[in-house]
């Protein structure tokens, strides 16, 4: 979706509401396609005293196996966008200003990159996830297994194996 914002730039106190959704189900994230549901976008562009602002709420659901135990897990994330729109490049580069010389904003492209930047580096079914036993593969959230080394860090376990031999 491309918004032509000439009218907003030309008229003080004008505004434009944005309600939109974006399909990002084809985004491959480490072998998964975690953005199965459409991205929800709502907000507005408005002109206050000749300053044009873009405010957006971008909501997305991230569905992927838990990093520790592998159970399918979905969490909702929100990206809050609060930027200024300018038609000419400012003297200083700024993260808060989007430059659109032709007064057109490609919402899809913008939202796409905002979501990609926001994708979680850690994805757990719950913060206290105990993970799986690296020896027998049991999901330790469902109960303990009988392996003696269950509480040992895998790297330490390797070392202990070496010491044993
Ligand atoms: Zn987990
Ligand atoms: Zn075990």
Mean pLDDT: 91
Oligomerization category of the chains in this entry: single chain
N-to-C CA distance: 63 Å
Count the strands? Answer: 7
Query: Could you say which overall geometry the principal axes of the C-alpha atoms support?
Result: elongated
The fraction of residues in strands falls at 25-35%
Helix content percent band: 10-25%
Enumerate the distinct ligands: zinc ion
Number of helices: 3
Question: Main beta sheet: strand number and arrangement?
Answer: 5 strands, mixed
Structural class: alpha+beta
What is the chain-wise order of helices and strands?
EHEEEEEEHH
- What radius of gyration results from the CA coordinates? 23 Å
Sheet with the most strands: spatial strand order: 2-3-4-5-6
**Tally of distinct domains:** 2
Please supply descriptive tags for the structure shown above.
single chain, 165 residues, alpha+beta, 2 domains, two-stranded antiparallel ribbon, 7 strands, 17% helix, elongated, binds zinc ion
How does this structure look, described?
About 15% of the residues lie in helices and about 35% in strands. With about 160 residues, the chain is an alpha+beta fold. The chain folds into 2 domains: about 1-130, no CATH class; about 130-165, no CATH class. The strands form 2 sheets. Strands 2-3-4-5-6 form a 5-stranded mixed beta sheet, covered by helices on one side. Strands 1-7 form a two-stranded antiparallel ribbon. Strand 3 and strand 4 (about 50-65) form a beta hairpin. The longest helix has 12 residues, at about 105-120. It starts with a strand and ends with a helix. Bound molecules: zinc ion (ZN) (2 copies). The site of one zinc ion (ZN) has 7 residues, from loops.
């Amino acid at each position: 979706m491309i918004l032509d914002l000439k009218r907003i730039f030309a008229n003080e106190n004008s505004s434009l509401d944005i309600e939109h959704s974006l399909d990002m189900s084809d985004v491959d994230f480490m072998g998964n396609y975690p953005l199965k549901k459409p991205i929800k976008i709502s907000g507005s562009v408005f002109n206050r005293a000749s300053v044009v602002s873009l405010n957006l709420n971008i909501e997305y659901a991230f569905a992927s196996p838990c990093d520790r135990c592998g159970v399918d897990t979905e969490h909702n994330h929100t990206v809050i966008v609060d930027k200024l729109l300018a038609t000419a490049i400012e003297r200083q580069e700024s993260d808060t200003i989007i430059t659109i010389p032709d007064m057109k904003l490609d919402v899809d492209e913008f939202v796409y990159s905002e979501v990609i930047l926001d994708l979680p580096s850690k994805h757990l079914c719950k913060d206290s996830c105990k993970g799986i036993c690296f020896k027998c593969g049991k999901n330790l959230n469902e109960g303990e297994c009988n392996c003696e080394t269950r509480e040992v860090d895998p790297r330490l376990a390797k070392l202990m194996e070496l010491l044993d031999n």
